[in-house]
């Protein structure tokens, strides 16, 4: 296991959709170990593989002491009820902006043994699931901001 450096905005890997995991080999097992170790720190809610430079569909989470991972996640359910709140990202450091997300989300994927993994939750967990799947699709949370807020975000990024 290794604690991995986080790729930040401007790195093309963050804007590239990730490929599905088709074979679980030592490389994928090491990736999962690295995702779990790297997310297991205060202030980290989730971590997508491309955030550590690997273009595979996998992410880990760390919500209220619950740490886990999922391979090939797909969002299968989102509530119509929306939550508004500030959202941040390890790949967009030091910036937080109001981002609308579904109040509840459910993701289905697999584990290293090919077993089904279902991860679901409300509020912070729902926000995390949506945020990490966006990463795997090559999106950053700033892409979801309302136009006026996005302008502020882009200005703040230039000032970093």
UniProtKB/TrEMBL annotation:
GO terms for biological process: translation. Keywords: Hydrolase, Iron, Metal-binding, Protein biosynthesis. The active site is at 132. GO terms for molecular function: metal ion binding; peptide deformylase activity. Binds 1 Fe(2+) ion. The keyword Isomerase does not apply. InterPro entries: Peptide_deformylase, Peptide_deformylase_sf. It catalyses: N-terminal N-formyl-L-methionyl-[peptide] + H2O = N-terminal L-methionyl-[peptide] + formate. Its cofactor is Fe(2+). Its EC number is 3.5.1.88. It holds the Pfam family Pep_deformylase. Fe cation binds at residues 89, 131, 135. It comes from the Bacteria. Removes the formyl group from the N-terminal Met of newly synthesized proteins. Requires at least a dipeptide for an efficient rate of reaction. N-terminal L-methionine is a prerequisite for activity but the enzyme has broad specificity at other positions. HAMAP family: Pep_deformylase (MF_00163). Belongs to the polypeptide deformylase family. PANTHER family: PEPTIDE DEFORMYLASE, PEPTIDE DEFORMYLASE, MITOCHONDRIAL. This is Peptide deformylase. It comes from Serinibacter arcticus. The gene is def.
